[in-house]
Amino acid sequence: MRGRSARGALVIGIAAALALAGCSSKSTDEGSSSTSASGAGTGSAAASTNLSIQPLVQVDTEGKEVPAADTASAADPAGAGNATCAPASIAMAGALTGPDSALGINIVDGVKLALDKHNKANPNCQVTLKEFDTEGDPQKATQVIPQVVNDPSVIGLVGPAFSGETKATGGILSDAGLVAVSASATNATLTQNGWKTFFRGLANDDIQGPAVAKYLTGTAGYKKVCVIEDNTDYGTGLAKSIKDGLGSVADSACAASVKKGDKDFSATVTKVTAAKPDAVFYSGYYSEAAPLAQQLKSGGFEGVFVSADGTNDPQFVTQAGDAAKDALLSCPCGPAPDKFKSEYQALNGQEPGVYSVEGYDLTTILLKGISEGKATRADLLDYVKAYDGQGLARQYKWNEDGELTSALIWMYEVQ
Length: 415
Hints:
Blueprint: H1 4-20, H2 35-38, E1 53-59, E2 88-94, H3 101-121, E3 127-133, H4 138-149, E4 154-158, H5 163-176, E5 179-182, E6 198-200, H6 205-217, E7 225-229, H7 233-246, E8 256-257, H8 266-275, E9 279-283, H9 286-298, E10 304-307, H10 314-320, E11 328-331, H11 338-348, H12 356-371, H13 377-385, E12 388-390, E13 395-397, E14 409-414
Parallel strand pairs: 2-3, 2-4, 4-5, 5-6, 7-8, 7-9, 9-10, 10-11
Antiparallel strand pairs: 1-14, 11-14, 12-13
Helix pairs in contact: 3-11, 3-12, 4-5, 6-7, 9-10, 12-13
């Protein structure tokens, strides 16, 4: 297909740079321990393919390569090891069970690593993690988040994880004065609600959309793309941004919408194969992306399957099998450096996945505040508002709306 040679050359050209930056590739084993929880295991054919999600290049909103950040100066949750504080708790809220639970598990396991390092190094400042399962469901989240805010021991939250549940509960968290640092909620409108406690730890979809669109039309050279979206807040928001960025390259004749939970995409496959596009961009989560990719391939689609952070998880590879090969997956999340990867695996029994590094970085920020004596919700909120520091994934500094002052996008490829 058009653009394949450009991508192949780019993989070779940046491999050394990624290695120097400490970026590690992710294998199909990464989500193995969350398979039963996420309802995975349907893609047994993938076991023999040895496919994995490989970091390709970091890009800006023009789709141009930006060198990976130097992680040598990243904040360490262990600190100097001399912190003193009263016992405190932080919470994580997100999908820990259900069809998309691998995404939430990736985050909470990153949180656990930061806490483990902090607590071992600082015996006089012990911080407890409280986990809250929303199943990624906005309605369930409206029942769960009040439990978080009503627990007086919780002074900070990593989450909510998904955009829909964040939209449904951001006002509750803001009214409670509880700082909420999300490792994964990317819908651009979330920071436009006047909330005072929400901080997004990665780029939003209005950054991801143009960056990916420019990459597809520039580096990859695609001339026709069919955009398919699910009906979630995340899916619809990202699809709009992608279509705006693609302009006339987004063929409206083969655009399609599907519902969360759908498994039969025959009508969409028929529409796509008739259009013969260079690529399909799917705006949604891996639990639908995997069967869609399979059905597109079996239906005769010969282009490239492209998706974003909702799909960028080893469960997509596991469930899609050979149909995942050559897929392009974008993400505002950064690859895991080697040291982080080994520490994460030793603690959690699996390799890091999408958002794991962000979960670790954001927890580190909360722990640094607690270590510096921020013992109340108000104090920790003020600390995060004023924070400016390097993490493993990026520099963390927020504007008054809770958006990062600088944010970039990574492109990955399944090989």
